[in-house]
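Structure first, sequence second, as always.
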């Protein structure tokens, strides 16, 4: 079985480090990823905005080294949670959980 996602895009905002109740570092980043083709309706390139969750050392390194506009590569997996609502099992949308980050460029504020 294989559960792997590879994304390359620009950070929409500066990542911010948080901690769980158990003091585990975490951040959520939002990547802007331009589609490789133009829309038939507007003749413009469309952009997808994908949220990714980063844990522990990956989260800390990304917060330290990346800023808004940075181009990064993300190797990740999809994770889906379920919960009970009125006795029925409900599934959430899949979440992108980063396993590896590649820093391609640092963004507008700093040059590599």
């Amino acid at each position: 079985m294989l559960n792997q996602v590879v994304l390359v895009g620009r950070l929409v905002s500066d990542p911010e480090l948080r901690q769980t109740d158990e003091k585990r570092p975490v951040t959520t980043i939002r990547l802007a990823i331009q589609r490789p083709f133009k829309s038939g309706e507007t003749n413009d390139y469309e952009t997808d905005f994908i949220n990714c969750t980063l844990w522990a050392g990956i989260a800390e390194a990304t917060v330290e080294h990346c800023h808004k506009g940075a181009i990064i590569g993300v190797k990740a997996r999809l994770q889906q949670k379920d919960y009970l609502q009125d006795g029925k099992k409900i599934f959430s949308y899949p979440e992108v959980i980063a396993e590896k980050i590649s820093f391609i460029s640092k963004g507008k504020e700093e040059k590599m």
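Margin note: The chain is about 10% helix and 55% strand.
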